[in-house]
Structure prediction request, 749 residues.
Amino acid sequence: MTTQAETGKVDKNKIGETVKKTFPVLNMSCASCAVSVESTLKSAEGVIDASVNFATATAAVEYLPGKTNPSVLRNTVGAVGYDLLIEDEHLQQETLEAIHEKKSRQLKTKTIGAIVLSLPVVIIGMFFMNMPYANEIMWLFSTPVVLWLGRDFFVNAWKQAKHRSANMDTLVALSTGIAYVFSLFNMFFPEFWHKRGLHAHVYFEAASVVIAFILLGRLLEERAKGNTATALKKLMGLQPKTVTIIQQSGTQVQLPVEEVKEGDILLVKPGEKIAVDGIVAYGSSYVDESMLSGEPVPVLKQENEKVFAGTINQKGSFRFKAVKVGNATMLAQIVKMVQDAQGSKAPVQKLVDKVAGIFVPVVIGIALLTFGLWVALGGDNSVVQGLMAAVTVLVIACPCALGLATPTAIMVGVGKGAEKGILIKDAESLELAKKVNAIVLDKTGTITEGKPQVTDIAWLDDDESQKAILLSLEKQSEHPLAEAVVQYFEGAGVVEVSGFESITGKGAKAMVNEEWYYAGNQKLLTENGVIIPADLMQQAIDWSNDAKTVIWFADRKNALAVLAIADKIKDGSVAAIKEMEQMDIEVYMLTGDNEATARVIAQQTGIRHYKAEVLPQQKAAFIKELQQQGKVVAMVGDGINDSTALAQADVSIAMGRGSDIAMDVAKMTIISSDLIKIPQAIRLSKQTVNTIRQNLFWAFIYNIIGIPLAAGILYPVNGFLLNPMIAGAAMALSSVSVVSNSLLLKWKG
Prediction:
C-alpha cells in the first residue's frame, strides 16, 4: 500500500490545513542516520512529508495538527535513538547551543579517558603478553572503555536493531562487543582451546583501541563543524528586548518588545536600536541602515518616512508608529530567509557518508558469510576458526580511519588557512570551492573600504588658510559626511564658532569672527548668493561624474573649497578580480548603491557584470538564477544584508571586518578583508580536498585488502590466517596513515 508521503500527490484541501515546521535533530552521526530519521518521520501517523538535512542537522516536517504534534514526533524519533528540539523558536537556539556545548565537553572527557585507559592495554597486548596476570590487567583497563565510555555505541546500535536498521554505531558495537565477549570467554575458559591444540588469545586491546579512535574521530569532527545556530541567534539579537511606548496620556512606559502592537507610538533615543518596522510620526534623525542595505552612510529619517527593526538610530531622537511587528518585520523576514536558504540547500554528501549507507550491512554480511563458509568448509575446529575470522573481519573493517579522514584534513587545512588569513568552517564548502565558476561580490565593504572618506579637495587659489574654520564647523555637525571631513583634517587646529545651525538636507552654517561660513551642497550656496568660481565648479562636475559626493565650503561671498567624498576601493581588489577572471571564474558585483556609482566602481575594477540598487532578497534570487544555469556560485559579502545571499550560495565567503552575522552564516571568512585572499582560498581548498581524498583512499585500501585477508582468503593457498590482534594493529595503522597524511598538508605550498 502506498502512503501519502510516498506518492507526493496529497490533496491538502481534502486532508485539511497542515503545519510546516523545522526542528533541529540531535544525535545524528552519519548520512544513514538522516535516512533513518526521515523514514521514521514519514511513517508516523499524521505526517504528510518530512525531509531531513544531515548538513544542517534539521528536519522539515509537514503534518496534520489534529493527528500529531511536535511532542509525539519527538517521541517517535527518540525510539530510534535520536531527538528533536521542539522548544519555542526564541529559546530554541540558546537550548541548541547549550546541548552542543555539553555534548562537546562529554565527548572530550570520554575521548581522553578512552585513550589513557587503552594505552596500557595496547602495550601489554603487543609486548608483554607473557607477564603474570596480563589478561586480567588488560580486562581491568579495557572494561571501562567498552562498557562505560563506549556504552552509547551499544545503546544506539540496539535502538537501530529494534527498528531493523543499522548505522556506524552498529558496526562499532558489533566489532568491539564480539571482540570483548570472545576475549572474556578465552580468559575464563582457556582449556576449551587448549584441548583443541589452540592458544587462547584475548583481544581486549582491539576492543578498547577501536572505541578510543572512534571517539577521537567524532571529537575532531565536532570541532570542525561550523555552528549556524549562532548566526540566527545574533540576527534575532538585533531586535532590542524592551521598548519605550508613548501612551495616549503622554506618559512613557517600558514594555517587552513582544507586547508591541500595530499602531503603538514608540520613542527612539540616540544610539538605540529600532524595535519594529514603522513610520516616523514626530522628529527626525539619521539612522544607520547598513545591516539591511549594506550602505555605510546613515539615512535621514523625517516624518512619514519608513524605519526598520534592527537599524540603529544615531544622535537625534524621534517617535514612530509601529506598522509591522513580530514575524512581519523585515528583520524577521531576513531571519526566516536565512533559515530557509540554509535548510533547503541539498547537502554535499561526503563520500564517507555515502559509503556508510552500504558499508555497515555489507561488512556484517561479509562477517556472517565468512563464519558460514568456515563452518561448512573448514574441517576440524571450523567453528572456532570461523568465529575468529568473523571477529577479525569486524575489527579490521571498523571505520575509525573513515571517521578521521575528513576532520583531520579540515583541521590542518583550517590551521594553514588561518595563517594566511582565511578561516574555513567545513568540508562541504571545501569540496565545492574548487568547482566555483561564478563569484558574486558585494560592493560596500567587500570591493570598497565600506566607509565614506575624503578622496579629493580643491581650494580656491590653493589657499588652505581657512581649513581650521571648515574643521570647526564640521565638528559641530551630526551629518555622517561631516565625520569624513573631520577625520580627513584630524590634527589640524580648531577655532571658536557661534550661531551654528544645521540646515536639513543642505548642510550647516556657523559664525567665526563675525563672518558666516557654510558647509554643504551646492543648493545651500546658491540660496545664500555665494559665488562659485568656474574652476571649482568644473572640478565638482568631474568628481560628480566619477560618482563621488561633493561638499562645498564657503564664506558669505565666495566658495572657498570643494571636497569629494567616496567609498574608496580596497588596495587589493583590482588585482584579486583580475586573478579570479584568469582562473576562468565569472565575477559579478551586486550593490544597493545607485547605477552611476556601480558603473564607476565596475569600470575601475574591471568587472564586466554588475547590478545596482539590489535589495537583500534580490541578491539571493540572483544567486539562485545563476545556480539554475548550472553554475557553482560563491558569494562574498560583509553585511547583515548579505546573509541571505551567503546562505543561498554554494560557497559563502565573508569579509572579516564586516558583521558577525555574515561571518557566522558564511562557510569561509577572509579575516583581513582582502579580496586577494579569495584565489588563495580556492587553491587551499583544492589542496585540502585532495588530502581528504587521499585519506579516504588509505582508509578504504585497508578495508579492501584487509577484509578478504581477515576472512581467510589466503588460507587455502598458504595456510595464512590474520590474527584479530594484527587486524587491530592494521586498523590503528590506517588511522595513523590518515593523520600523518593530513599533517603533510601543512608543508604544501
Summary: The chain has five domains: 4-86, 100-217+348-406+693-747, 240-328, 424-448+570-684, 449-568. The longest strand covers residues 448-459. The longest helix spans residues 89-127.
